[in-house]
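Batch job 17 of 40 flagged for manual review because the log was empty.
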Amino acid sequence: MNDAGRRATHRASGGISAAGGFSLLEVLLVMGLFVLISVLAATAITGGFAGMQLRSDAREVAAQLRWTRTQAIATGQPQRFTIDPHAHTWTAAQGRTGEIAKPLGVAFFGAREVQPRAGEGAILFFPDGASTGGRVQLNAKRAAMNVDVAWLTGEVTLERGEVVR
């Protein structure tokens, strides 16, 4: 009997096929390891979940500062953005409010003259787009994001910074 005939007879009798391949379990195990390694690599590259939260909250604060400036220009009335670093909360134009994640550090640097209460900060935007200026710094571990507002133009910028203690 030739080789092909022996294999056909062997398969027909319930024996194991000579064809190679991987079992479903092996394929799933390799895929699972690939996903785990990908998640760990992504976490290490982006600074982990705290880093993602830091960037997300900093972008939100910057967006709300821009919104407040836009409202000052659109309404022709001064608008105020306030932040409470201890409570991790902010208030923007037209009653918008929000929170900053508790694990993040929050610091405000700006003019005392527009400060609503001790421990809180504020940036006032004028109808011409100018502002009182200031900086909101969010930090997680050794990483920091600065949201800066230029006093002359009211321009809001977002950039990495050094942690200020």
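Reviewer: the log was empty due to a logging misconfiguration, but the result itself is present. DSSP finds three helices and eight strands in the chain. Unflagging and moving on to job 18.
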